[in-house]
Automatic annotation (TrEMBL):
All residue ranges annotated as the Cobalamin-independent methionine synthase MetE C-terminal/archaeal domain in the record: 20-368
Source species of the chain: Paenibacillus oralis
A GO BP entry: methylation
GO MF: 5-methyltetrahydropteroyltriglutamate-homocysteine S-methyltransferase activity; zinc ion binding
Identification of the protein by name: 5-methyltetrahydropteroyltriglutamate--homocysteine S-methyltransferase
């Protein structure tokens, strides 16, 4: 589908009727270059030039398949979250004892810790965004960063500065306010916060884990919403901020299960975001009933009905029926379509071929064109 067709789907501002979460499979050239860089046979400048060339290629490909929002595929990152967080002031990466446990597989052993006052200044991803922005042209450059909740949930506090957790929350939300303004000043008008922490509320088992840590799930839920809302409170009116909620995405597997029910009132009625990207690609995500808590006509709900975990294309009629089902709770004009997650939340990527990835994204565009004629 060409660009004029993609623009005809009824939304000129993000999120778009046919959209994407952000990460893309690392190409062979990227993987080889990163290995050479790690071995010391490639300079940082040489690696960046290879990244630049591959990002140019995949931006052109995103335009070709008909997407209005283009990303850099997170090609300069190893992780969807750690690379951003450990470049905040006061945060460091370190090699952990073990990786993150997914269903049947474990990630590399890496984590982050807070060692000083959290702040945002001179972050390298500002230059990454500027490069993408320069390639976008008439398309919209989409920047993805982890939500502030991810530092709280994934980061170990290793400084006496934050014995008072309230001081940590204040510094963290202020750092995000600065980040949002900095990306805006760099030209960004479409920013996405990625957040896996909400899965802690989706099943009784995961809520029991919070209780075992001495935490009240409802209080933690309210804190999660407060951090998001405070971080985005002063955003410019023409900056769209969305959030992607995920139950884990690594090598085509996952970490969490359960529908949105237990957190639905907070997620759908209590977050001051412009859009929500939601996993709905299999039974682990539950039904659409929690969407009844959407209480704003300006909140766009992006249905992640196309899976990024395997390459086989979904039956388009089945996807259209599911969109119709969701529209019983939220009007069709408030719905959009995307894959349920990125294709490579980490540099390893899902077990999908690159051509299957592009076919999936083209599938999103073509189905959306049929639904929102």
């Amino acid at each position: 589908m060409n660009q004029s067709a993609a623009k005809s789907l009824g939304r000129s501002i993000p999120p778009f009727r046919a959209d994407q979460v952000g990460s893309l499979l690392r190409t062979a050239a990227i993987k080889t270059a990163r290995e050479q860089r790690a071995a010391g046979s490639l300079s940082a400048e040489q690696l960046r030039e290879i990244e630049n060339e591959e990002i140019r290629r995949i931006v052109d490909k995103q335009k070709e398949v008909g997407l209005q929002a283009v990303t850099d595929g997170e090609f300069r990152r190893a992780w969807w979250h750690f690379d951003f967080l450990e470049n905040l002031d006061g945060v460091e990466g370190y090699e952990a004892e073990s990786g993150i446990q997914f269903h049947g597989v474990q990630s590399k052993a890496h984590s982050i810790k807070v060692t000083g006052k959290v702040d945002f200044s001179n972050h390298p991803m500002l230059e990454d965004y500027k490069f993408l922005h320069g390639l976008a042209g008439s398309h919209t450059a989409k920047m993805t960063i982890p939500s502030p909740n991810m530092l709280y949930y994934r980061g170990k506090i290793d400084t006496p500065l934050y014995e008072d957790k309230e001081a940590f929350f204040q510094d963290l939300t202020q750092a995000y306010k600065k980040a949002i303004r900095a990306f805006y000043d760099a030209g960004c008008r479409y920013l996405q916060l990625d957040d896996t922490s909400w899965a802690a509320f989706f099943s009784e088992e995961s809520r029991d884990k919070l209780r075992a840590q001495g935490k009240d799930p409802q209080q933690v839920l309210e804190l999660s919403a407060k951090m998001i809302n405070e971080a985005i409170a002063d955003r410019p009116a023409d900056l769209a901020i969305t959030m992607h909620i995920c139950r884990g995405n690594f090598r085509s597997t996952w970490t969490g299960s359960g529908g949105y029910d237990a957190a639905a009132e907070t997620i759908f009625g209590g977050l001051n975001l412009d859009g929500l990207f939601l996993e709905f690609d299999d039974e682990r995500s539950g039904g659409f009933e929690p969407l009844r808590y959407v209480n704003r006509p300006d909140l766009q709900v992006v249905l992640g009905l196309i899976t990024s975990k395997f390459g086989e294309l979904e039956n388009p009629d089945a996807i259209k029926r599911r969109i119709d089902e969701a529209s019983r709770y939220v009007g069709l004009e408030q719905l959009c379509l995307s894959p349920q997650c990125g294709f490579a939340s980490t540099e390893e990527g899902n077990l999908v071929a690159e051509e299957q990835q592009w076919a999936k994204l083209r599938h999103v565009v073509e189905i959306a064109a049929d639904v929102w004629k």
